[in-house]
């Protein structure tokens, strides 16, 4: 069955890649600078975080005596969180967004979440590429340890995809899910040490953080880029298992409800 | 290749009493189902053999679109099964997924990919797509600058750029200008000749009768009638006229045609005869001769207004000529029960040779959809023969007169004469 999904995805790869390309292009379609905006926007963001926060506001990370330390800490968490939030936010809406297409045309529906993921990854690749470039220019590139982020990224994407598809399917039947997702994402963000270091949390709150599955991932990124430290693999295992389970749940939910879904759109 | 087998197909939508009950049904283990099934289609079975064309008709809400959606695979059936063999193309909603900011060419590629084609294949087919759409340099303009007709043209060209084994067409096709409509129907006919199986939903009598081998009438989610297109279309016309109270009956005529009679019955056709110029009843007539169609109508209840119409149809059921007393401002008013009215229409039978039938209608207004006292197909059948005029083809005797000029030859002949 999952083989069938894979083979239909392969057959529709042209559509999937075309959609990614089209969505990417459509954003800057009628602008003068065109694709340049794909670089200007994230660049501005990186500059705001690093220069403004670290230099002007003199924000320092405890235990790191690098001017840019806090900026890098921020970017490592924010950019990867952005990828997670984009997959989740767009994933929960993907079936509703394409309701017309789903009702009128017969094509493998699993293409739609895949387009979302690929698009999010493309955006992430651009912004993260710039971030890496920035690190090289400012002499803060952590070296080979960067490769350590790939498995972390894989776990994170699988987690986001699983959760995104589940929310996407549920959202068709219970539109409350879409509303809730935004709110939950807000709380989740502030409950993850991205803007602040975990050390500033009071005792009880720090204890609670252990139940936040995003924490080990974000901390792994921060470790790589701030301290040039390899991720602590054992802390990632539970998350990897959860992610795979989520994906399986997502697939079975999708298979079970995708027929009914069209009737509800 | 290209067969469709639909067996005992049914579609029901789930209806929950409240929004919470769905959640309860999903989450509570072993809970009883809390939804009710609302059946929109039930027990639909039919087969379409390779190369055959089946027309599906029915009023809005009869379940036609649901049926097509299940066959194309967008909606899943609740009961029964569908077996398709061969490559399917569906013209349900043309221009789906067109993005207004992108050019026609880019959109054509996207639409093709959505149909499962590869980019190389599409590049290969692009000249043909462009050629058929005939939208010229608009091909490289954003689709937002297109008229709806142009979008249609492009969408149709893409959807039909490959000949499918099964083509599924919804009435959406009847948009666009007359020229393109012809062109698209020609393409469908071509496909058909080449062996494509066709499934078409339409309200257009002509389309169904000229293209289809068989027709299927859906009514409230069930197959009401299946058979020859003309027979089913007649039943359908009668059915829409008769939604309120009346009866529809079909009789099989000796020549194996089916006569449909319907109506509310306040007035009925008592007799219909075709007379020649000597007043003798005939059923074979010479083309171009004057004839009289005499129709006797019995009035069974008081009627405020009565319009009689007749229509001559050819062997294929296409309308050749039709007129009614409303259109010539001769309706009758305030008729009493028990009255009898005799109408005589005189005309020259300027028809080509062949079989013709006459359909009659008794109604209150111009259209029999308003109030239909009686509608009778195949009220009369007659044959036209042609022994006196030149042997023309077609059903309209236009009596074309010929003049021939050959100017060069005249000069040539003059020169000949001079040199002699």
Question: Would you kindly provide a written description of the structure presented here, covering whatever features stand out?
Answer:
The complex is a heterodimer of chains A (265) and B (420). Chain A has 265 residues and is mainly α. Chain A is built from 11 helices and no strands. In chain A, helix 2 crosses helix 6, helix 3 crosses helix 6 and helix 7 packs antiparallel against helix 10. With 420 residues, chain B is of the alpha+beta class. Chain B folds into 3 domains: 151 residues, P-loop containing nucleotide triphosphate hydrolases (Rossmann fold); 74 residues; 133 residues, Distorted Sandwich (Coagulation Factor XIII, Chain A, domain 1), CATH 2.70.50.60. Helices cover 25% and strands 36% of the residues of chain B. In chain B, a hairpin with an 8-residue loop joins strand 19 and strand 20. Classes of the chains: A mainly alpha (265), B alpha+beta (420). Chains A and B meet through helix 2, helix 5 and helix 11 of A and helix 1 and helix 3 of B. Chain B: InterPro entries: AAA+_ATPase, ABC_transporter-like_ATP-bd, ABC_transporter-like_CS, ABC_transpr_TagH-like, Bact_Polysacc_Export_ATP-bd, P-loop_NTPase, Wzt_C.
What is the structure about, briefly put?
The complex is a heterodimer of chains A (265) and B (420). By secondary structure, chain A is an all-alpha fold.
